[in-house]
Amino acid sequence: MVGDVRQSVFDTNPEDPNLKKYRGVAMLQWFALYEKTGLLDVSHKVETWRANQAIADFSDKLFPAEFTFASTRSRQDATTGHDGMFAITAADVPSYVRQFEAQPLRESKAIARSSDLPFRNFGKVKGLTFDRVLIYPTDPITKYLTDGTELKPKTACGLYVAVTRAKHSVAFVVPNPTATRLTPWSASP
């Protein structure tokens, strides 16, 4: 079996009363339990061929240290002149999309309802690759970007999927880009 528990955006049977404590990212604990019995051998792959190192580093930090994920090493070394993690204002979105052709992503259709961008939801882009993504964050994600407030596991998994779809850059639409830990971007006057 091959998988990345950080991409646990759906439960196959959320009503199943068995093993509730091992759902989502907590599956790691279940794997470790069975590995100790000798019934399972867990090996970790820590390389990505899709995302650049800045994106890999950001995505590695989405989960609390207690999950003990190894750092990801990027094998994708292409540079484009606009690479990494960015924050932009809503006013700059039209220019950003026009200039970089970023794929707009959101957690659900409840986010950025008034926008006419061709959104895809986080859970629907698993397995896809885009050169760049533009993310409209939820309030908890915006808090994470500004002050590092820990994300709930399901939110972290969805954001992990969204961020790791990009090869070159990820931009978040936030009220105040300079308040984040990301590189602010604005349209040239």
What's the topology here?
Elements (H helix, E strand, L loop, with lengths): L26 H10 L10 E2 L4 H8 L12 E2 L9 E5 L4 H8 L2 E4 L13 E2 L8 E7 L2 H9 L5 H11 L2 E8 L9 E2 L5
Parallel strand pairs: 1-2, 3-7, 3-8, 4-5, 4-6, 6-7
Q: Descriptors for this entry?
A:
5 helices, P-loop_NTPase, two-stranded parallel ribbon, alpha/beta, six-stranded parallel β-sheet, UvrD-like helicase C-terminal domain-containing protein, Rossmann fold, 189 residues
Q: Would you give an account of this structure?
A:
This is UvrD-like helicase C-terminal domain-containing protein. With 189 residues, the protein is of the alpha/beta class. The protein has a single domain, classed as 3-Layer(aba) Sandwich (Rossmann fold). Helix content is 24%, strand content 17%. It has helices at 27-36, 53-60, 93-100, 139-147, 153-163; strands at 47-48, 73-74, 84-88, 103-106, 120-121, 130-136, 166-173, 183-184. Strands 5-4-6-7-3-8 form a 6-stranded parallel sheet, sandwiched between helices. A two-stranded parallel ribbon has the order 1-2. The N and C termini lie far apart (52 Å). The model is unreliable at 5-13 (pLDDT under 50).
